[in-house]
Amino acid sequence: MRITTFHIINEDGTDKRKIWVVGQGERPHYFCQQQVNPQNLPVIYKFNNKAWLLTGLWYEFLCYFNEEMRISQ
Predict the structure, then answer these.
(1) What is the DSSP string of 1-17?
(2) Strands, DSSP E only, in the chain?
(3) What is the phi/psi pair of residue 23, to 5°?
(4) Residue from 38, 52, 39 nearest 6 by CA
(5) How many domains does the chain divide into?
(6) For each successive 10 residues of the chain (73 residues), what is the average pLDDT?
(7) Distance in angstroms (rounded) separating the CA atoms of residues 29 and 1
(8) 64: domain range?
(9) For 43, phi and psi rounded to 5 degrees?
(10) In terms of Cα–Cα distance, which of 60, 70, 73, 72 is closest to 16?
């Protein structure tokens, strides 16, 4: 099992955003065993074969973060 986590937090810890988790499968075996739906987790779960934060996911994250900042102002 390989995962990558991406944490969004400011320096003093007063502003925390949802953690992004990148796994290797849409419904990994370890989720199926526990009957967990990744969409119901308190994180944003994405997946690809290597569990890496690739360019497409990085762009998706930037769009998400930009929208979060726009809403908070």
Answers:
(1) ---EEE--B-TTSS-B-
(2) 4-6, 20-23, 44-47
(3) -115, -175
(4) 52
(5) 1
(6) 88 89 85 82 91 92 90 82
(7) 9
(8) 4-71
(9) -135, 170
(10) 72
